Amino acid sequence: MFAYIIRRMLATIPVMGVVAIFVFSLLYLSPGDPAVIIAGDTATLDDIARIREKLGLDQPFYIQFGTWVWNLLHGDLGISIFTNLPVMTLIKQRIEPTVALTICTLLVTIPIAIPLGVIAAWKAGTWIDRVVMVFAVAGFSIPGFVLAYILIFTFSIGLDLLPVQGYTSIKDGFGAFASHMVLPSITLGLFYAALVARITRASMLDVLSQDYVRTAQAKGLSNREVLIGHALKNAAVPIATIIGIGVALLISGVVITETVFAIPGIGRLVVDAILRRDYPIIQGVILMFSAWYVLVNLAVDISYTLFDPRIRY
Amino acid sequence: MTIAPAELGAAPAFSIPQRGKLHDIFRRHPTAMAGAILLSLLILMAVFAPWLGTVDPQALAPIRRLRPPSSTYWFGTDMLGRDVYSRVIYGSRVSLIIGISVALFSAAVGITLGLLTGFVRLADAILMRIMDGLMSIPSVLLAIALMALTRASMGNVIFAITVAEVPRVTRLVRGVVLTLREQPFVEAAIVQGTFIAASAMITEAALSFIGAGTPPNIPSWGNIMAEGRSLFQVAYYIILFPGICLSLAVLSINLIGDGLRDALDPRLARRM
């Protein structure tokens, strides 16, 4: 098992390597000379040459790439072209709202989505099942930013219950924090809830047709005991996978959700960077999100060995 | 499957096996039928856009800017006085073209790469590492990054979203090839392609919405919503109508996809 875990960890290296090459090429291939952009409008040719030399832009591709990776491994993501601040600093400044939003979304969705999936599977073919499946298809079909505006029109402008946009840190009061988080969490979470509910239903359906479930029912266990004690436990692996992959997917939705709700997180950071063509920020954020995705997947794979003793490596 | 007599009685016109199969999908999945009707309406809307009571979607008229929906301006007018109804109708063209193109291109590339990796060891080792890397980048972000490299054009949007979608098709086709080399990978790719069309429409709209997608002069649903963003508290209708159309378009394709998956790939369907 430990050999497997180590092998699995080593397998993340080529993946991150591909991401690093892709992300680096992004800057290398970007139109316009970064030295010219950094030097500004009033720079002389000498200034530009000096900056180019300082940034190592006069070096061949592989040396530039090597230096860049070396810096990366030391936690240096480069300097933002527009603000002239280290990308790492900018990311640290913006990480809190994004993490808060992701956690709130999980808290809102998982406790709803898994029971929905379990009930749908248990009542498969009935109207309850159909309602859950309709919810799932709707969740897949309504884009986050459309849902966001429908929620804002209804709850913020129409009923005047919640703030329209913005973010308040949890440090400045829980009430204000929560009221700003409700709509963004639902926006970000609908797709995710639909996905988790659907996978839960499917894996429960699979498990419920197994012999041991019939045995459990035959020996007189209550529905609750069969569903939770036997079925859900055995359906845990696909559900855990989708929760894990979903956590990584949520990050992708953050970009749009933060834009609509004017939340000053990583998503906004990258959207602003695109409009200003601030490539180092785009690079840094992509790297961070990919590393996060790879790590979550690693954690999910390793958790299999804990969740499911039937899996042996 | 012992319902042949009833089926024959109900559908004597569908004696060709292929069409019988398709008919069967829609008969057994009323939701897929609803999706097909909805999608057909959208396609008709896109094709006959000039004859649906629309005016030039680009025509500026500063005097009648920000008019709320009325009998003259069904969906109101935007801040430049353009007719939102006409823009939304024409916007269906962009969404459909992008959805269909991305689905076709990613299916074609994905099937090719999937077969290559499924059958050739060396290609598998190299290509799958690249695919794993690309898949670890959130697809919207990957498309954003590619769009940041190029200038805004519909071709570039299609290219960027295709690159983001190809790894998923490749992995699916490879998986099917590896498990049983005679499995219907084309069917699997078709089902996947349907969902890709839906997700490509959302991605295009999302890219345009944040200003990194289709050029602003083309009325796409994402662009219309992007223009309405700063004004949404005063002029809700600029965002609402394209948003509803986008959701319905995606819904129609998802419904068809669910039906197709149940029919063509029962093994996958059971897992979903």
Outline the fold blueprint.
The complex is a heterodimer of chains A (313) and B (272).
Chain A: H1 2-10, H2 12-29, H3 34-39, H4 45-55, H5 61-73, H6 87-122, H7 127-141, H8 144-158, H9 174-208, H10 211-218, H11 223-234, H12 236-261, H13 266-275, H14 279-307
Helix pairs in contact in A: 2-5, 2-14, 6-7, 6-9, 6-12, 6-14, 7-9, 8-9, 8-12, 9-12, 10-11, 12-13, 12-14, 13-14
Chain B: H1 4-10, H2 17-28, H3 30-47, H4 84-119, H5 121-135, H6 139-149, H7 154-179, H8 185-209, H9 221-228, H10 236-264, H11 266-271
Helix pairs in contact in B: 2-3, 2-10, 3-4, 3-10, 4-5, 4-7, 4-8, 4-10, 5-7, 6-7, 7-8, 8-9, 8-10, 9-10
Helix and strand element order of chain B: HHHHHHHHHHH
Q: Give the number of helices of chain A.
A: 14
Q: Unreliable runs of chain A, pLDDT <50, ≥5 residues?
A: none
How is the main sheet of chain B built? none
Distance N to C terminus of chain B: 22 Å
Total number of β-strand segments of chain B? 0
Query: How much is the radius of gyration of chain B in Å?
Result: 21 Å
Assembly state: heterodimer
Low-confidence stretches of chain B: 1-19
Counting DSSP H or I runs of 4 or more residues, the number of helices of chain B is 11
Shape of chain A: globular
Compute the CA-based radius of gyration of chain A: 24 Å
Strand residues, percent of chain A: under 5%
Mean pLDDT of chain B: 78
In N-to-C order, the SSE pattern of chain A is HHHHHHHHHHHHHH
Number of strands of chain A: 0
Structural class of chain A: mainly alpha
